[in-house]
Specification:
The chain has 450 residues and is α/β, with parallel strands linked by helices. It is built from 14 helices and 17 strands. Helix 13 packs across helix 14.
């Protein structure tokens, strides 16, 4: 039995839904179908979720929303009409969309979640109706009925362990269940969404809950590539990698998979396959707990991400000052700032942070707190830093990887702001000037991939 999930681009139009139907029909083991809201049909198009966010903002400010309601309703109506579905399907959708504003309660912390989840919820109902229209024994099922119980954290829900036992009750269903991704329900019955892109999380949760043989995640690419096609022409397709390698790559910029989505499958030891809705015959990329045999590849991928900054604290005899790092981290905790890396020297400690956390005011407050409570000899801030990750379980079985990668960057005159390698030798992290990101990725890729 398989759980399959289709991303926004895979369910963006009637043409795409016909491909989805063919994929479901092709394998009778595909009985749990998790779907996203309709994504972009072309580069100038809008995602339904973005339209719903705009709708929420206008409703919260008591602005005119008629045109947005019509645009969202028309999106589903066009799909339904092209698929030959009954007009009453979209009439019900229009009513549900309008009801969002009619029941708007600005004091309800979950009100935005209701708007956000509507895209997935309506799409799942539409797709289930389409499957039935085409003769499949299928039906829509609400996440509450399936048993997806989540923490009461608006826009950032986490699955509760008791959910898995509830979901397993559906393991032997003979129907094809179409499930909206992205949200669950709290114990109090409040609809609550996962973080943005959370339909991947739902797919992984369902796979773990019903103890699937495999979790297939269909998207618009053939699988996961060893580097971004934005920088590398026709990069190598990764046929297999481990959960840990995928986590490292996701952290450093690989966007095919939501970086939290692997955890439920990882815990349940369920293999995940990334496949292409537009090319389903391609084997895709398999993500497993471990390799069946020793991985012959030293490196599986090169990932990069921008938008970091570094704060370097210099203080003479820092290494003799007991509790120094604790005091620095306490400042970050009090300001609700997380850090990514903390390289250090005898008299220096650097903090690598994501710039998205820092407003100009918060950065000013952070530096002031460090000045007053740490009393550094020097305090230096550098913006526009990119992080490059070289990832591979096989690196620990080969010597000289760090030397080769450093040499590759040096040949291109790329200055390293930081280099970090964990004790598990699964990844090497480089921090560099943002403008050299593309050059660094290309240099590392062509060093380890022919």
């Amino acid at each position: 039995m398989k759980v399959i999930k289709f991303g926004g681009s895979s369910v963006a139009s009637a043409e795409q839904l016909k491909k989805v139907l063919a994929i479901v029909k092709d394998d009778p083991k595909r009985r749990f179908v998790v779907v996203s809201a309709p994504g972009k049909r072309h580069s100038e198009d809008k995602k339904v979720t973005d339209l719903l966010i705009a709708y929420y903002e206008k409703a919260s400010n008591n602005q005119e929303t008629t045109s947005l309601i019509e645009e969202i309703t028309e999106r589903y109506g066009n799909i339904a009409q092209e698929l030959g579905l009954d007009d009453r399907v979209c009439e019900a959708f229009a009513s549900e969309i309008t009801t969002l504003q009619e029941n708007f309660d600005e004091n309800n912390p979950y009100i935005l979640d209701r708007f956000l989840a509507t895209g997935e919820n309506l799409n799942a109902q539409l797709i289930a109706a389409y499957f039935q229209h085409e003769g499949l024994k299928a039906r829509y099922i609400n996440p509450k009925d399936l048993g997806i119980i989540v923490s009461d954290e608006p826009h950032n829900a986490r699955i509760l362990e008791e959910s898995y036992e509830k979901m397993y009750q559906w393991h032997d269903t003979e129907e094809i269940l179409v499930i909206p991704g992205f949200f669950g329900y709290t114990k109090d019955g409040q609809l609550c969404t996962f973080s943005r892109g959370g339909s991947d999380i739902t797919g992984s949760i369902v796979a773990a809950g019903v103890k699937a043989e495999i979790y297939e995640n269909f998207t618009d690419v053939d699988g996961i590539f060893a580097a971004t096609p934005k920088y590398i022409h026709e990069p190598a397709l990764i046929e297999q990698l481990t959960y840990r390698e995928m986590r490292e790559l996701s952290y450093a910029g690989f966007t095919v998979f939501h970086d939290e989505a692997l955890m439920p499958s990882f815990k349940a030891k369920i293999p995940v396959v990334i496949k292409n809705t537009n090319n389903p015959s391609c084997t895709g990329t398999m993500i497993k707990e471990s390799y069946d045999r020793e991985n012959p590849n030293r490196v599986v991928g090169v990932a990069s991400d921008s938008g970091f900054c570094s704060i370097t604290i210099n203080k003479y005899l820092l290494n003799r000052e007991v509790g120094f790092v604790r005091r620095v981290l306490q400042i970050l905790e009090e300001l609700n700032i997380s850090f990514e890396h903390m390289p250090s020297g005898i008299d220096t400690v650097s903090l690598i942070l994501r710039e998205s956390q820092l407003t100009p005011e918060l950065e000013k407050t952070l530096l002031k707190e460090i000045e007053e409570r740490i009393c550094p000899d020097e305090l230096e801030v550098e913006h526009d830093i990119s992080v490059i990750a070289l990832v591979g379980e096989g690196m620990k079985f080969h010597t000289g990887i760090t030397a080769e990668s450093s040499a590759a960057l040096a040949r291109k005159n790329i200055n390293l702001r930081m280099i970090s390698q964990g004790a598990d030798e699964r990844s090497i992290i480089f921090a560099i000037c943002g403008e050299q990101e593309r050059l660094a990725v290309r240099s590392l890729y062509y060093t380890f991939f022919d």
